[in-house]
Amino acid sequence: MIIVMNKDVTEEQIGAVVQKIQDLGHEVNISRGTNRTVIGAIGDESKLDPESFDSMPGVEYSMHIVKQYKIVSRESHKQDSIIDVRGIPVGGKQVQVIGGPCSVETPEQMDLAAQQVAAAGCRLMRGGAFKPRTSPYTFQGKGVDGLAIFRQAAEKYNLPIVTELMDVRMLDTFLEHDVDVIQIGTRNMQNFDLLKEVGRIKKPVILKRGLSATISEWLMAAEYIAAGGNHNIIFC
């Protein structure tokens, strides 16, 4: 079962709900998103009555969810998700095109690419500083230098940047370069340690569907991110 707390909930009200769940013999997961806090009761849901939580201060609503993915399920939030990327809405009625080269190679290449992306009307720019390759002998990307080149080129046209994170050890570097949207690539959809780490930050995350992954597996991967408190998830 999940309990969705209202926007102005206090820590005391959260604590009261947590205590009640624990008193009933269940474990608790607290997911603190930007706009709401979701409390998950872990255990036999049949022993919990949503109505007993709905009347508690700070509770917006509670419900049983039979699916394994709870926070990212349609039942937990009826409204369509709209992710804000530096004032640009991703989701909703307007389609956003994210343009740019596969990989970051030179400053001249990225300057020209940023110019063309902006001229084409795209509002976000993509480019790979770290490139997963089938062969270990092919170009693997410019790495940290590529992030700096990308950021400098995109800033000239006020374009938020989207780039792929492959290694959890590089997350702090991505934050230092203020990457606007972190992409989790197909090969890493079920890299659960990586998903947990991007779940603890508030940056929007593009989660690409893994090779041969079912829809349920894809949603469960997103649940790892959401359970950490980051609800800014874009499916790709």
Q: What is the CATH superfamily label of the largest domain? A: Aldolase class I
CATH architecture of the largest domain: Alpha-Beta Barrel
Instruction: Provide the residue-averaged pLDDT.
Output: 92
How many β-strands, per DSSP? 12
Structural class: alpha/beta
What's the overall geometry? elongated
Provide the number of structural domains: 2
User: Per DSSP, what share of the residues sits in E-state strands of 2 or more residues?
Assistant: 15-25%
By CATH, the topology of the largest domain is: TIM Barrel
Report the major sheet: 6 strands, parallel
Query: Which strand order spans the largest sheet, edge to edge or round the barrel?
Result: 7-8-9-10-11-12
List keywords for this structure.
alpha/beta, Alpha-Beta Plaits, TIM Barrel, six-stranded parallel sheet, 7 helices, 12 strands
How would you describe what is shown here?
With 236 residues, the protein is an alpha/beta fold. It has two domains: 2-63, 2-Layer Sandwich (Alpha-Beta Plaits), CATH 3.30.70; 83-235, TIM Barrel. It has helices spanning 11-23, 50-54, 107-119, 144-155, 171-176, 192-199, 215-227; strands at residues 2-5, 27-32, 37-42, 59-63, 83-85, 88-90, 98-99, 124-126, 161-164, 181-184, 205-207, 233-235. The longest helix has 13 residues, at 11-23. The radius of gyration is 20 Å and the shape is elongated. The model has no long low-confidence stretch (mean pLDDT 92).
Write the layout of secondary structure elements.
Layout: E1 2-5, H1 11-23, E2 27-32, E3 37-42, H2 50-54, E4 59-63, E5 83-85, E6 88-90, E7 98-99, H3 107-119, E8 124-126, H4 144-155, E9 161-164, H5 171-176, E10 181-184, H6 192-199, E11 205-207, H7 215-227, E12 233-235
Parallel strand pairs: 7-8, 8-9, 9-10, 10-11, 11-12
Antiparallel strand pairs: 1-3, 1-4, 2-3, 5-6
Helix pairs in contact: 3-4, 6-7
